[in-house]
Amino acid sequence: MKTKRRWLYLILILLNIPLGLATRWAPQYFPEIIRIYGGDVFSATCIFFGIRFLYPLKPLYKIALINYLVCFAIEVQQLYQAQWAVDLRNTPLGILLGHGFLWSDCVCYAAGTLLAWGLSVLLETVFFKQAIK
């Protein structure tokens, strides 16, 4: 069961990454709300799926809580403006760290967490006949 769950979440991660990147690199194909907020929502869902991949038997509500705290920590670290941190954010890794603190991003992370949690409950119920809630 653990291995099957990991495969499910690996597939979700692999589907999620191109969607999130597409909102940044090809925004003209998305409605305005997704162009503006979609990348942050997809980031939160991808982190959720990654945590679930690592901990396939942990209750989903705990994964959701950990996910939101990780996303919030990533957002808060953007308030730190030391030169070395700014330089690090200007590298390719910077796409993961972001550039400026926005409260709207915290709302997007909450939406992404709830979306991923709901999708996880649904998929685990369908594929495994139960979700670890």
TrEMBL record:
The record ties this protein, via InterPro entries, to: DUF2809
Can the keyword Iron be found in this entry's annotation?
no
According to the lineage, what is the superkingdom?
A: Bacteria
List residues traversing the bilayer. 7-27, 33-55, 60-80, 100-123
Per the record's keyword annotation, is Magnesium included, yes or no?
A: no
- Keywords from the UniProt entry: Membrane, Transmembrane, Transmembrane helix
**What is the name of this protein?**
DUF2809 domain-containing protein
